[in-house]
Structure to design on (142 residues):
């Protein structure tokens, strides 16, 4: 049971991120207390891209709860270097149009978060399926 609880922690973090996005919008739009606070200032730069990234990640993280531990560990090795790369990619993308020149290719932080989430989820799904098939083939169940 403890092992499954550890595998549920990434899904719980993604659910908390989605919930924080809704809480921060509710706080900004319904009460005057949040306007001008840190929550309203980080909405476009951090909260919205993090929400977009976690939406693409959530189905994979729910699948990870039900897979064997050795597949989860191999996915964890993939995460240790891919999440920092995704964060760097998202952080160096502009938040919105800077106003300098003509905006020929509009690609902003939300788009970068969606793209990073799609790529990360796709590679994670391929890795999970590949490890699952390899473990079944190794044990002679195929």
């Amino acid at each position: 049971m403890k092992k499954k609880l550890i595998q549920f922690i990434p899904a719980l973090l993604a659910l908390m991120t989605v919930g924080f996005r809704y809480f921060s919008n509710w706080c900004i739009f319904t009460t005057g207390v949040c306007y001008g606070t840190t929550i309203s200032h980080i909405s476009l730069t951090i909260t919205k891209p993090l929400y977009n990234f976690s939406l693409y990640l959530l189905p994979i993280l729910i699948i990870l709860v039900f897979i064997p531990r050795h597949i989860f560990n191999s996915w964890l090795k993939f995460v240790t270097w891919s999440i920092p790369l995704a964060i760097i990619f998202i952080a160096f993308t502009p938040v919105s149009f800077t106003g300098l020149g003509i905006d020929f290719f509009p690609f902003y932080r939300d788009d970068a978060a969606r793209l990073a989430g799609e790529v990360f989820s796709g590679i994670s799904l391929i890795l999970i399926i590949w490890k699952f098939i390899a473990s079944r083939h190794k044990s002679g169940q195929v």
Q: What stands out?
A: The chain has a mean pLDDT of 81. Residues 39 and 58 are 23 Å apart (CA to CA). The two ends are 28 Å apart (CA to CA). The helical segments are 2-30, 38-41, 43-65, 69-91, 109-138.
